[in-house]
Amino acid sequence: MIKMVDDIRTQGGKTTLITTTLGVRRSYFNLLVQQRQYSNTTEFEGGFRGLKFTTDNGDIPLISDIDCQPNRMYFLNEKALKYYRENDWSFMDRDGSKWQRVIGFDAYDATLYTYRQLGCHRRNSQGLVRDVIEG
Q1: Are 21 and 69 in contact (CB under 8 A)?
Q2: What pLDDT, on the 0 to 100 scale, is given for residue 79?
Q3: Which of 20, 10, 3, 133 minimizes the C-alpha distance to 76?
Q4: Candidates 3.30.2320, 3.40.50, 3.40.30, 3.30.70; CATH matching 2-81+122-129
Q5: Mean pLDDT along residues 83-104
Q6: CA 50 to CA 17: how far, in whole Å?
Q7: Quick one: DSSP state of residue 132?
Q8: pLDDT at residue 56 in the model
Q9: Across the chain, which distance is largest between two alpha carbons, in Å?
């Protein structure tokens, strides 16, 4: 983990978030429990508490995501990520009506849609560690 943060730092980037699976988070937590240090937690917006990875350049939050690919840790620079969107949310109106009657029910159906994409304008400030043991 330190090597990945250092590699990103030497390329001019800064890791601001580490995301991984529940199992990898448990493995990392088990390493911390062996040291009997419970002060290595941080509080996120909304009251959620989580682990953080401490470096000489500051603390990096480590969060788990159930949709993350197994055995991987993603080291992200949130400032280098941008959310692109073509337009705002709108109702689909391709056949002349936004509302479609639901057959057999007293109901109508509509489709709300938008086109969006997550982009990165500085790829060398992101990192991936593979083959991490799940706990």
Answers
A1: yes
A2: 92
A3: 20
A4: 3.30.2320
A5: 90
A6: 12
A7: P
A8: 87
A9: 65
Structure tokens at 94: 């391709």
Instruction: Give residue 133's Cα distance to chain centre.
Output: 19
Dump the DSSP string for 47-78.
Answer: G-EEEEEEETTEEEEEEE-TTSPTT-EEEE-G
Residue from 80, 78, 77, 28 nearest 54 by CA: 28
Q: Retrieve residue 88's tokens.
A: 């705002």
Q: Hey, what are 69's tokens?
A: 């690919």
Task: Report pLDDT for 35.
Answer: 66
What share of the chain has pLDDT > 70, as a percent? 88
Two structure tokens written together for 5: 């943060």
pLDDT at 126: 94
What number is the average pLDDT over the span 60-67? 92
